[in-house]
# Entry
Amino acid sequence: MSPIERIDTGDDIIVCEDVKKWFGEFQALRGVSLRIRRGEVLVIIGPSGSGKSTFIRTINRLEEHQAGRIVVDGIELSHDVRNISAIRSEIGMVFQQFNLFPHLTVTQNLTLAPIWVRRWPQPKAEAKAMELLERVGIPEQAHKYPGQLSGGQQQRVAIARALAMEPRIMLFDEPTSALDPEMIKEVLDVMQELAHTGITMVVVTHEMGFARQVADRICFFDFGLLVEEGTPEHFFTQPSHERTKLFLSQILHQ
Amino acid sequence: MNLAHTGRLPDPSGGSERPGPVPGGQAPAMERPPPGETGARAWLRYNLFSSGFNAGLTVVLVLVFGWVAAIVVSWAVFEANWGVILKNWRVILWGLYPRQEIWRPTASLLLVFLLTVLTWLVGRRPGMRRLRTPILVGWVLSPLVIGLLLRGFELPTLRTIGNNLGYYLFRPDLLSTVNALWRGPTALFLVAAVASTTRVVDDRPSVRRLAVAPVILIGLLNLPSVVRVTEAVPTALAVLLAAVAGWLVGRSIGRLLSWTEHGRHIVNWLWLLALVTCVFVLTSFPVGRPEFDPVQILTSVQPSLWSGILLTLILATVTAVLSFPLGVLLALGRASRLPVIRASCVALIEVVRGVPLITILFMAQVMLPMFLPMNLSIDRVLRAIAGMTIFTAAYLAEVVRGGLQAVPREQVEAARALGLSELLVTFLVVLPQALRLVIPAIMGQLVSMFKDTTLVAIIGLLELLGILSSITKQREFLGTVREVYLLAAAFYFVVCYAMSVASRRAEVRLGVGTR
# Structure
């Protein structure tokens, strides 16, 4: 069995070149090229149906891209199952609907992957789980089931679950969109704290304030294309593209 | 400036608790409901006498039930001849099982009872979770243990095992009649030599370990001849000598080979040569014809004597324990992406579901022997269990499939995103949720399977119903059909009701934390 082939991508942890994706006849991604640096916080915004969720789901192969190439931490996403599982254990993902496992307690949710994938002994995995729950501020919920928690608490557990595998990259797919308004801040606070730790983050969100405060770079997607990218400063004050201006005027005057 | 929450209210509680009543806000005190709106009188008024029609219906139904109950009770007290059950309870319980061996079915039933109680306790006490694996193993092994207990078994002696192994592997009758004691040690010598060469030439730990395996294997194959031959000690010495000599020779060959660069390559060829030679040398291994002198542990009780409640419970328990995993596998196969597996599972499920159980039971009696080797015959009870298992499994598979489809796709995605392999996704995330969803339906299938055990009477097995109807033909109890069938009804009702209560309890308990 040959070892997994590693490609040197320098300072970039994620490299996407001309990524294309179709759902049947519909083209969801029309050639996206993007390089994400180590430790960068990248926020992706855009109208619904613009392909931003599809794009981040191709990074850990929840969606398969049909053209172009994606290299994550020097490993190319191919049909090789070993590559896919190596990449998936490097990437944590947080979903809009939390997707906690309802039949397991909070602690079991957090220790499942470390025990079965990383082969950690149970005490080690549980210690790590407790540490993470303290970090996201809900250690007292450790033995409850997800159904007994509020939406904000569930999403914080989901973040902790993703972090339990000690990933180098975190993907957030609209993490606050399914939350009641009063619970959004507690999740954003955790994400902001996480951004300061130097982990690479790719965040799809509609929270413009978060984008402005935390992002190193903002990408604007529309019609399956990366339309514009730049620093938050550039993005909110002098967007160059017409579509971006229109989108920003719509979203900021709600 | 804080643009972060455009159009959103700030969170006053700091965001760590569930939203509740505003602290400090005093809720106004509740009033009591008006008199006559609670208590027994209100219940009667709302539920039994809410209108003139309902009141009439209530009275009529009470009268009808009272009349039926009066008839049944007066029959049961004054007319019925309960002697038929009191005198025959042993036969009803254990059927024709030999009297002096009754402890064996008793022990089997106790085993099942113990497992059930333990399973129930584990669900209630979190402290007993550690026992989950042993209990599961117990359930898996239970059909085998019960079968051995009831049927009786015998153990072959070690000598018989070695003898038969040698015979079937090397077929001495096909080869020379020469007493060929040299063959085993020679083979051992060859293999030991190549193995030790390998260990000199190759420094990879896995290869070094692997090289020893053939030596051990051939060494073990020498055992029968050592045990069998009259001069055991010299033979053993010869074997030992061969091994040591081979090892030493091998080491010097290894040193020689280390002078060339192709050592490993040559060793590979040496292995091939040695193994081929071994086959030739060994194929006339001198061991005797097979003989069988088993030691009887429990006397044999033919399954044709298993009957009564004992047989009913055996059929039900063994079928349940076997059909559940089979049903889950069939359901997973039906959901598989591999077309061949999927098609064969669908075919099996649909064919079995399209055929009545009685037909399957008959076919199991008639057709199962067709697929088995000539000398292996399985008895009628086993054939009945096989038929019922496949029938129940097909229905369970459809139930479980429903559960699998009800688990949201996002659960699979979340598990995959954590790096779990497809197998782990299925067994750790999807299956537990799917099974939890279909507990009532699974239990329903098992209840109907339990009642279907009565059908085996048709293929000539005397389960509870069969035994009972034969009791009514005893001369002193002629015409006691009512008593006997009332007993049967009570028995089936009690067991089935217990099963459905257990299922409801399990559902409530596992329902903790459902979304």
Q: What stands out?
A: Residues 1-20, 173-179 of chain B have pLDDT under 50 and may be disordered. The first strand of chain B starts at residue 154 and ends at 155. The longest helix of chain B spans residues 481-510. The interface with chain A takes residues 2-11, 13, 15-16, 18-19, 410-411, 413-421, 424, 428-429, 432-433, 436, 510, 512-515 of chain B (CB under 8 Å).
